[in-house]
Design goal:
By secondary structure, this protein is an all-alpha fold. Helix 8 runs parallel beside helix 16 and helix 16 packs antiparallel against helix 18.
């Protein structure tokens, strides 16, 4: 019964956080800190809370899959696909290089760098929904020109795909750790080939099912005119793919993401109905997931290592910002160069899904408690600093855009441009 107290405390904490402009998830984490071992130690059924938190992960990734759309990637697929992979590769290479300097295992440093390379989709969407800055400043822009919002969403969509792959690889490497005990390169290559083969098989099966079965499945359910059956049918689809991917030793979380993508590919009224029905379930179980994260956060550790954590957070923000600027400079045309500052600022924070990766890795004994706490602390601080960097980048982009327009007008008046 002690788990019953999680929701009231989480509600009060998230209310306070929302009132001061912070994401509600900070309130959920705070409730876990208050009720957990580092606080009042009220919660005794920690395993039960973490089990409920696992359902939160499943529904969170299903919701991410629902938002996935190939249509959004068509015009900017080069930047979205190759740019995102280049940013991830740069972060991992920097992480491994720094790990070697400080005598840290490449496995740890690569995983931490991959976690920190992801950016928060909900936070960026919140920024874009405000409609501030350059978007208003460019109301009369060229209709053929891609705006920074589309670039951001395209990159974030590809990061969601990489998230699913990271979770799949994480679970599979932990499950098959005996296959790589000798540490040989060949053993890792063989294991990676098996994982990728299983993933390709799952994706092919899901593409076929999405094209020929999903519409028929939901059409028959809609004829019942029952929200209850629609909800149960959607959850049944999630758990079915969850079980299939688990049997294939890929990742249960990847199955949830793919289930959402299968439904989201149709983009019709049924998809909207599924979102309305499943999102409250996601929000409910997400409370337990973030509260379970709070169980492992110790304020004494954060206070003792505060200086190190702050410097590491600034380093991560700067590295992510510069890496994004570098990659976007290679992909974007010169006329869109001011936009790279806003897009880079939007990506220069760490996604809340690093909590998911870190929690999964810790439970699989792939990282230790100190590394896990560092990931949580850096992620939290980066999300707090994100709004400030976003506003600064808009100001800088506005200045560069005005300078570009002034230069263009000067060339026209001087007759250098017809």
């Amino acid at each position: 019964m002690d788990i019953v107290m999680v929701l009231p405390v989480a509600f009060l904490c998230s209310w306070v956080c929302s009132a001061v402009g912070l994401p509600a998830m900070f309130g959920y984490i705070l409730s876990g800190i208050i009720l957990g071992p580092s606080g009042t130690n009220y919660l005794k059924s920690l395993v039960q809370l973490e089990t409920l938190g696992e359902f939160g992960v499943f529904f969170i990734l299903f919701a991410v899959g629902l938002d996935f759309s190939f249509e959004k990637l068509k015009k900017i697929w080069k930047v979205s696909v190759f740019g995102t992979m280049a940013m991830m590769l740069i972060m991992v290479l920097i992480g491994v290089s720094l790990g070697l300097v400080f005598d840290i295992s490449p496995k740890y440093s690569a995983f931490v760098a991959a976690c920190l390379a992801l950016s928060s989709t909900p936070l960026v969407i919140k920024f874009l929904d405000k409609g501030e800055g350059v978007s208003r400043h460019r109301e009369e822009k060229d209709p053929t020109e891609t705006d920074y919002g589309a670039l951001l969403l395209g990159i974030l969509i590809m990061q969601d795909v990489l998230l699913g792959m990271l979770i799949a690889l994480l679970s599979s490497f932990a499950t098959n750790s005996s296959a790589t005990e000798d540490g040989t390169t060949l053993a890792y290559i063989v294991l990676l080939a098996k994982i990728l083969g299983s993933m390709v098989g799952v994706l092919v099966m899901c593409v076929i099912a999405s094209r020929f079965l999903i519409s028929i499945f939901f059409l028959h359910i809609s004829k019942l005119h029952s929200k209850e059956m629609m909800t149960i049918g959607s959850v049944a689809l999630i758990f079915s793919l969850l079980k299939i991917t688990d049997v294939l030793h890929v990742s249960m979380e990847l199955g949830c993401f793919v289930a959402g993508a299968m439904i989201g590919a149709h983009r019709n009224e049924l998809v909207s109905d599924v979102e309305k029905l499943v999102h409250p379930i996601r929000d409910f179980f997400a409370v337990f997931f973030f509260a379970s994260v709070g169980l492992h956060v110790f304020p004494s550790f954060v206070a003792y290592e505060l200086t190190v954590i702050v410097w590491l957070t600034f380093a991560v923000i700067i590295i992510k910002f510069l890496a994004s600027v570098l990659v976007l400079s290679c992909f974007l045309p010169k006329r869109m160069s001011p936009m790279k500052w806003i897009v880079s600022a939007g990506l220069a924070q760490v996604s809340e899904f690093s909590f998911v990766l870190g929690s999964r890795a810790r439970r699989l004994h792939l990282i230790n408690r100190e590394v896990y706490l560092l990931i949580l602390s850096i992620t939290s601080l980066s999300l707090l600093f994100a709004p400030v960097l976003w506003r600064l980048s808009q100001w800088q982009a506005r200045r560069l855009l005005d300078r570009y327009r002034f230069s263009l007008c000067s060339l026209v008046f001087t007759g250098k441009i017809a």
